[in-house]
Amino acid sequence: MAPKMFHLQIQASALMGATLAILPGDPGRVERIARTMKNPKFLAQNREYMMWLAETEEGRKVVVCSTGIGGPSSAIAVEELAMCGIKDFLRVGTTGLIQPQIDPGTVVIMTGSVRLEGTSKHLAPIEYPAVAHHEWVRSLVDTARRLKIPHVVGVSASSDTFYQGQSRQDSFKKGFVVRELEGRMKEMEQLGVLSFEMEAGLILTQTSAFGLRGGAIAAGIVNRHRRELPDESIILDAEAKVIELAAKAIDSLAVGPS
């Protein structure tokens, strides 16, 4: 009998031939995503990793697996899912918008990410770009247009920390950051970066370096020029949009690499 993956605590056979995974960060979102599709089924839970299996309307099997927050735990999820035969990965999360004109509730479809985190350096040198696979981007954009989901397309930035690394002013030390992080949000804004989050840089680097297909979308739940923390009603509405987009975009994505 094949051994279980050390962290995910599943055997490859449990995935029933699935080759595509949706990766939310929050274990609490996994069942919610799976239940938007057909035949949702609980697979396993260990540490931050909650896993369900479901099917799209076209009968494509999909694994939904939480990654926890940040790069290290996300890298483990991608690694072990790839060992189980997953070839397509879609990061589905939330994000803080940093361009002043973008309204909360807008979905960010990422073409790439600024690698401000450290985990991806264990997979490729910093000069290696964190880019989404073009087929994921095309499928997501086409689906968002068809469903009339408000969206923007472009580059995000991935940080290892939620407070200091994203220039938040509501941290314990009230806005203090080490010298190399001073002015980071302003710099990213001026470079046209759309938002901050914490996982896409790693996931897009890892999938590309492994010859897999990676995509990333995130619901904009707050505009950082207006406030630091989001309103609960905006979170629920934005999450519903990004989950719908993920579930519907899968069937328009061509079968991945063999």
Task: Provide a descriptive summary of the structure in words.
By secondary structure, the chain is of the alpha/beta class. It has one domain: Rossmann fold, CATH 3.40.50. It is 26% helix and 27% strand. The chain has six helices and ten strands; from the N terminus they run βαβββαβββαβαβαβα. It has helices at 30-34, 71-83, 134-147, 184-190, 200-209, 232-249, and strands spanning 20-23, 38-46, 49-55, 61-65, 88-97, 107-116, 130-131, 151-159, 195-197, 213-223. A five-stranded mixed beta barrel has the order 5-9-8-6-10. Strand 2 (38-46) and strand 3 (49-55) form a beta hairpin. Helix 2 runs parallel beside helix 5 (200-209). The radius of gyration is 17 Å and the shape is globular.
Write a short abstract of this structure.
It is built from 6 helices and 10 strands, in the order βαβββαβββαβαβαβα. It is of the alpha/beta class and about 260 residues long.
What key attributes describe this structure?
Rossmann fold, 6 helices, five-stranded mixed beta barrel, 26% helix, alpha/beta, 27% strand, 258 residues
Give the SSE map:
Elements: E1 20-23, H1 30-34, E2 38-46, E3 49-55, E4 61-65, H2 71-83, E5 88-97, E6 107-116, E7 130-131, H3 134-147, E8 151-159, H4 184-190, E9 195-197, H5 200-209, E10 213-223, H6 232-249
Parallel strand pairs: 1-4, 1-5, 5-10, 6-8, 8-9
Antiparallel strand pairs: 2-3, 3-4, 5-9, 6-7, 6-10
Helix pairs in contact: 2-5, 3-6
